[in-house]
Amino acid sequence: MSFDGKKYTIKVLWRVIMVLFFAVVFFQAARKAAGRITADFYYPFVSSAIQTQKQVAGKALLLESKVALAAAVEDSEKYIQQLTAELATFRALRDENRELRHLLDLKEHYRFKFVFAEIIIRDPAAWERRFTINRGSDDGIATGDCVVTGSSDGEAMGLAVVGRIGRLSHHSAEVITLVGNDNRFSIRVDGNGAVGVLDGGFRRGISLYGLAAYLPRDLKYEPGMKLYTSGLSRTTPAGLYIGRLSDLPNGIRTHNNLYTEADVELGFDLNLSRFVMVITGGQ
Q1: Would you say 281 and 141 are in contact if contact means Cβ atoms under 8 Å apart?
Q2: Cα angle: 189, vertex 191, 197; to 5 degrees
Q3: Nearest C-alpha neighbor of 227 from the set 277, 153, 121, 120
Q4: Among candidates 137, 141, 240, which has minimal Cα distance to 185?
Q5: Backbone angles phi, psi at 205, to 5 degrees
Q6: DSSP SS3 for 282
Q7: Could you tell me if 243 and 265 are in contact, meaning their C-beta atoms sit under 8 angstroms apart?
Q8: Looking at the predicted structure, is the pLDDT value of residue 267 above 70?
Q9: If we measure between CA atoms, which residue out of 236, 275, 280 comes closest to residue 150?
Q10: Residue 211 to residue 184: CA distance in whole angstroms
């Protein structure tokens, strides 16, 4: 092959490479845009189905006996009273914290807002990794916001971290759970004060586990120790419940003689969760 022929071949290869590069970039951008447009387009239909489901559930309540309904109302009232008492305690702690900050002339770091949402779509193929809620950017939430739901572990506050906001549209958002491999939280171990990172997780049967990594290896860890958010992130308040160190075989181990990593029994149960709360405004 002559020199001109080789030069022409190189030019053609470069053009093909550039075309492929821009095609990949365009595909990724178009995919994200299409996802947002599709989510907004289908939202009225999904919302309509949810409303129909609520109406059917409401009609089903009419078939329940008065005794069963009265017992359910009584249990609900007791639970509300318990939550009211706990809320009063937390308000007192908040006021005390603000007073101390004022006396010490310390600025309040972050102010968070809370957006209540309902789960409207579950992915059957990846139910443990993501789901969709009926709140979006129009409701003030943003990508990366922390999401909590009811705790399945009897935690005092009754809430546990379930994940973060991923892709979102105007009226809906995808929640990436703690099991997702691209989801990380700064954590603190209650009992020894160790700080590490919750780095994804895994599913075993119907149980969900997280992976706590980069924990100091010279501290003592035992199954049952509770984990909370450390508050080192602007998007996540401190003290939110994550879960507890599991008692799985080899659940607490040393990684390459560098740090300790452990399996974490997560504090939420997606099988029982219908509602979540998005914590936003910390950035």
Answers
A1: no
A2: 10
A3: 153
A4: 240
A5: 70, -125
A6: coil
A7: yes
A8: yes
A9: 275
A10: 10
CA–CA gap between residue 86 and residue 102 (Å, rounded): 25
d(CA 196, CA 210): 12
Percent over 90 (pLDDT), the chain: 36
Q: Are 141 and 114 in contact (CB under 8 A)?
A: no
Contact criterion met (CB below 8 Å) for 193 and 234? no
What's the pLDDT at 232? 82
Phi, psi of 224 (to 5 degrees): 100, -15
214 with 196: CB under 8 angstroms? yes
- For 143-197, what is each residue's pLDDT tens digit? 999 999 888 776 655 789 999 999 988 889 999 999 988 789 999 999 899 999 9
Asked if residues 155 and 241 have their Cβ atoms less than 8 Å apart, the reply is: yes
Which of 99-108, 189-198, 227-236 bottoms out in mean pLDDT, i.e. has the lowest?
99-108
Q: How far apart are the first and last CA of the chain?
A: 61
Residue pLDDT, tens place only, 31-56: 555 555 555 555 555 555 556 656 65
Backbone phi, then psi, for 179, in 5-degree steps?
-75, -20
Helix (H, G, I), strand (E, B) or coil at 8: helix
CA distance 146 to 135: 14
Cβ(124)–Cβ(242) below 8 Å: no
